Amino acid sequence: MSYPDLKITFLGTGTSSGVPMIGCHCEVCMSIDVKDKRLRSSILVQSALTTLVVDTTPDFRYQMLREKVDKLDAVIFTHPHKDHIGGLDDVKAYNFFLKKPMEVFANSLTEVALKREFSYIFVDKKYPGTPKVNLNSINEDSFFVGDILIEPIRVHHLNMHVLGFKFNKFTYITDANRINDTEKEKIKHSDTIVLNALRKQSHISHYSLSEAVELVDELQIPNAFFTHISHQMGKHADVSNGLPDHRKLAWDRLVLHV
Ligand SMILES: [Zn+2]
Ligand SMILES: [Zn+2]
Asked: Taking a C-beta distance cutoff of 8 angstroms, is the pair 7, 255 a contact?
């Protein structure tokens, strides 16, 4: 089967509080470099026929406006933390213009959380204007959204099971601090990986920068972009200078063709 060419747009590359962080006056939060402005982590994945988004962050509305996404076929969720689901209400604009429910793909853990956190979406008698979603259950099996084949990768985020997603030879893993050997096998032959790297110091539920570099080197993946970045990482330009070739910090609005 031939795989469609995909355009990947980084909608956000920040950790849960975003960069700058409210009330913070550190040199990163005060930086005027646009690469130090990080919305919450999400990517847009587009083939010629299909457009999907990985996660609906609290910045989802602005991310869709900024990238002029008039048509969205689906949302696929990594895990139920609020920085990854918080913007779901705004799919109602697509309901209005496309005249159909939004197709949402989530595993059972995320599904339970969506029904709890957005209970008004899932009641029988909905208030007018409430978003309409069609929940599709996913597990570790590959699935299609339109012409895009997606392979879930199970990773560990402290004690939570999070899904990463592999699109042909492009892998996106946003919240993890551990990946077991069978899942590593699945991502080994990627050309490009996006992997979370929170900051330089170690953290209980995210890879640090050196751990992330070590992992992509171990897996021998030619190109790596790090995401879900905290203001504690340091300024984009300073950190980028210290990184090996083909291992880069991602930035908002970066576009890849894979
Ligand atoms: Zn997160
Ligand atoms: Zn998380």
From this structure: yes
Q: What is the mean pLDDT of residues 118-124?
A: 96
Amino acid (one-letter) located at 251: W
Ligand with smallest separation from the Cα of 110 = 2
Distance from C-alpha of 114 to C-alpha of 141, rounded to nearest angstrom = 21
Q: Where are the alpha helices (DSSP H) in 108-169?
A: 108-117, 119-122
Is 219 a residue whose pLDDT tops 70? yes
Measure the CA–CA gap between 21 and 229, rounded to whole angstroms: 12
Query: Cβ(11)–Cβ(39) under 8 Å?
Result: yes
Distance between Cα 47 and ligand 1 center (Å): 25
Q: Of the ligands numbered here, which is closest to the C-alpha atom of 83?
A: 1
Q: Which ligand is nearest to the CA of 196?
A: 1
Letter for the amino acid at 162?
A: V
Distances in whole angstroms, Cα of residue 208 to Cα of each of 3, 28, 57, 79, 230: 33, 18, 22, 20, 10
- Nearest residue to 88 via CA among 123, 131, 51, 122: 131
Q: Which ligand is nearest to the CA of 163?
A: 2
Residue 4 has pLDDT above 90, yes or no: yes
Tell how far the Cα of 42 is from the centroid of ligand 1, in angstroms. 9
Q: What is the mean pLDDT of the chain?
A: 97
Residues with CB under 5 A from ligand 1 (ion): 83, 175
CA-based nearest residue to 44, from 148, 143, 188? 148
pLDDT tens figures, 129-144: 999 999 999 999 999 9
- Is residue 195 within 8 A of residue 173, CB to CB? The reply is yes
